[in-house]
């Protein structure tokens, strides 16, 4: 197989369809798929849930296929409609209205999703938090957003610094809660009393829907603000990129604390009325494979960190499971190593489709679609309606093959509309009509985009620019290495030298010979200047909860600098 190109396996037919989509494209046409209320307004919760619950053929279809250790549940679209109506009534009773911020700090569960849509139904703005956040992370986000309500569990309550949150009026407790009081609301008790019927708050496409906090390299986390309009792009990319069909069983592994877990863990499947698998608990290779097997997952959207763990677990584990239900696999969050694409062809006989986007962009912008060829290591091409380019620091476009800032022409539906309380930060993303991503990349002659690194991660060693990703990709091709994180370490002679942090596969122990072998392996496989001069063996590589290698943290550790905001660090 020519690893430079993996041809499409979809028939010609699909390719023609996609060409047509591209040629006659307009976002307004996508909007025609939605039902508009007689008020001329809309609500994403209605589009994702109630619309299907009102359709006799769909109302009893499984919407949510939930499983976690010790709990399994199926909810139909009708169930989700009723449960979210009840929650909307609970919020109304406590005087929560359009534009208020309501945060969720709890594990993935049916209650989470009912509450999420209840929030949207009253026109409020939902703020999902990772359940693993500690007190400081919770404080920063609730303070900055001035949230009025928090939905959480008794277990997590100790991490909610109630005394420091003057805007917080109510805490809804899910699961054998305390008695209701002036602050605490008992979820079970109030849901039981609430009505199944609720009259949805119809909103404008430009009204607020979501607040996702994301960490930058410095300073406090920033609140990325999204509006209902985003669903237009969730809907469209679910069709072209996820390739969702009515009888699919879809699974997105992302937690809703991460934008992937809302855009593609909630909206994309449900806007299309597709059965959505939600798996709670922690993951292991057995758990990933087991979930695919037990629910007969057909479309799987996951992340390189998960896929690398499967590669490292080996074929023995994969062979214990029946995985033939899978027909389409996608990845997001970090560069997808070519090694993993090759492995996917062997392990699943399927291509793994990389997709690129950001919390700020709200939905996929660059992706590999089923009907086009994949070039392993490339993120793919812009989806219809998106103009992407490589620009210099003044916003001038650069020719193919030249590395620069990955940038998108302003004006797509799912774009953030603000950084909460921080207009100047928001404005700093734009140059000359381009949204500048902070990623460096280049474009090849055929329009495929190739990721090089976060701009702040790019290494300059003896005048050569080296993307940490290519070194990491080469490292994990070595049989001894499970994961790798690569940074530039200041060096008086070379500007920076390349330092690699690695974890070893089972059965390997650290030795001088092994490290030397690894160095040679990179040198022969990539180039002399890309070979790490220093290699340190670790038990784990620090990663965010969305699976991103925290190179910034590796660097701070290395240099003994303050570590900055680490609220999203996976323990
Ligand atoms: C959805 C999401 C955004 C940053 C982005 C880039 C990295 C995401 C990638 C990728 C290489 C891909 N990233 N997808 N890098 N290839 N396919 O991940 O949002 O958490 O905000 O991160 O993630 O560096 O700028 P977010």
TrEMBL record:
Gene Ontology MF annotations: acetate-CoA ligase activity; ATP binding
Keyword field: Acetylation, ATP-binding, Ligase, Nucleotide-binding
GO CC terms: cytosol
Keyword field contains Transferase: no
Enzyme Commission identifier(s): 6.2.1.1
Gene Ontology BP, a term: acetyl-CoA biosynthetic process
Record domain AMP-binding enzyme C-terminal: where: 470-548
Protein name: acetate--CoA ligase
Lineage: Bacteria, Bacillati, Bacillota, Bacilli, Bacillales
Gene that produces this protein: acsA_3
């Amino acid at each position: 197989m020519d690893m430079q190109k993996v041809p499409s396996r979809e028939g010609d037919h699909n390719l023609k369809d996609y060409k047509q989509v591209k040629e006659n494209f307009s976002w307004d046409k996508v909007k025609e798929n939605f039902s508009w209320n007689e008020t001329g307004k809309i609500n994403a919760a209605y589009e994702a849930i109630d619309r299907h619950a009102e359709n006799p053929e769909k109302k009893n279809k499984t919407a949510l296929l939930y499983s976690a250790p010790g709990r399994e549940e199926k909810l139909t679209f009708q169930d989700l409609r009723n449960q979210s109506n009840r929650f909307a009534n609970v919020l109304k009773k406590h005087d929560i209205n359009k534009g208020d911020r309501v945060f969720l700090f709890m594990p993935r569960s049916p209650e989470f999703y009912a509450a999420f849509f209840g929030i949207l139904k009253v026109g409020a703005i939902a703020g999902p938090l990772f359940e693993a956040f500690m007190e400081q992370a919770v404080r920063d986000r609730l303070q900055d957003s001035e949230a009025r309500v928090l939905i959480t569990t008794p277990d997590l309550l100790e991490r909610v610094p109630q005394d420091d949150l003057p805007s917080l009026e109510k805490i809804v407790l899910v699961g054998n809660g305390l008695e209701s009081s002036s602050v605490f609301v008992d979820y079970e008790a109030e849901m039981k009393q609430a009505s199944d019927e609720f009259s949805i708050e119809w909103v404008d496409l430009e009204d607020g829907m979501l607040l996702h906090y994301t960490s930058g390299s410095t300073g406090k986390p920033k609140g990325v603000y999204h509006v209902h309009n985003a669903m237009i792009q969730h809907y469209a990319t679910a069709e072209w990129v996820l390739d969702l069909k009515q009888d699919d069983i879809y699974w997105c592994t992302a937690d809703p604390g991460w934008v992937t877990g809302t855009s593609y863990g909630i909206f994309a499947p449900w806007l299309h009325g597709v059965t959505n698998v939600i798996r709670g608990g922690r993951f292991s290779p057995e758990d990933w494979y087991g979930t695919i097997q037990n629910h007969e997952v057909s479309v799987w959207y996951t992340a390189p960190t998960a896929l690398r763990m499967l590669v490292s677990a080996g074929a023995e584990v994969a062979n214990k499971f029946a995985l033939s239900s899978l027909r389409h696999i996608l990845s997001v969050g970090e560069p997808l190593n070519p090694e993993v694409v090759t492995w996917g062809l062997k392990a699943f006989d399927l291509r793994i489709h990389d997709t690129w986007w950001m919390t700020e962009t709200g939905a996929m912008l660059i992706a590999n679609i089923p009907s086009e060829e994949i070039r392993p290591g490339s993120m793919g091409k812009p989806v219809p309606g998106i103009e992407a380019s490589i620009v210099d620091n003044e916003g001038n476009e650069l020719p193919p093959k030249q590395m620069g800032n990955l940038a998108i022409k302003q004006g797509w539906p799912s774009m953030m509309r603000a950084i909460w309380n921080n207009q100047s930060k928001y404005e700093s993303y734009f140059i000359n009509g381009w949204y500048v991503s902070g990623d460096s990349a280049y474009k090849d002659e055929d329009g495929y985009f190739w990721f090089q690194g976060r701009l702040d991660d790019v290494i300059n060693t003896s005048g050569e620019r080296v993307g940490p990703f290519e070194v990491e990709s080469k490292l994990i091709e070595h049989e001894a290495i499970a994961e790798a994180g690569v940074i530039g370490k200041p060096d008086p002679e070379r500007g920076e030298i390349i330092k690699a942090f690695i974890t070893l596969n089972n059965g390997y122990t650290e030795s001088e010979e092994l490290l030397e072998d690894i160095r040679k392996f990179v040198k022969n496989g990539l180039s002399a200047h890309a070979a790490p001069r220093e290699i340190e063996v670790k038990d784990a590589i620090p990663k965010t909860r969305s699976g991103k290698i925290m190179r910034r943290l590796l660097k701070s550790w290395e240099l003994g600098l303050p570590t900055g905001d680490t609220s999203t660090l996976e323990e």
